[in-house]
Amino acid sequence: MLDHTEYQRILRKLKASQGIEKQWKGFLYRSSAMEYANKADFMSGEGSFKNGGRYNAVGSFKAVYGSLSDHTALEEAKAHAVYYNFPGHTVFPLVLAALDVSLQKILDLTSRETRDRIRIAKNIILDCDWRSEQDKGREAATQAVGRAAFVAGFEGILVPSAADRRGKCLVFFPEKLLKGSNISYVNKNKIMRIPRKP
Question: Which of 55, 113, 141, 184 has the most CB within a 10 Å radius?
Fold first, then answer.
């Protein structure tokens, strides 16, 4: 995978920007295909590690994608079908679960002040065709942002939703969670009963 030309600049900006990190606490909604809807996989980040995502290139690092509302979570889930001109119903069945999240160090890219400090335009976040770039063997601009945040030690990034322009998403990095941060299932005794495929 060819590094994005802006990666090193973004990483330097993040490392040099004092006080740019924020705490975040709230509920996160995550949808998953049936194959990953089990306790071992649902919050592992393996799916995006194998296939890539808007903020992590294939094979780069693990990232777990969630949304701040159930509506946005479903719109994000349907985005893959929409991109390839498949009917929206083809993404189903899905499993939708809520997570109780408390993180100490996130990068808030919904904040214009934060975006200005690292010189990332909102339209790049929303309109980047990361699938096309990845298919060509190039790291997309949004993937460069995600990797820079990961390397700089952030636990995750808060971002505008590309699928629901009124929504927000939180992408967290399981390998970067700090001591004292917590992510747990809501109603965990009622969910994730689907066995993992052997």
Answer: 55
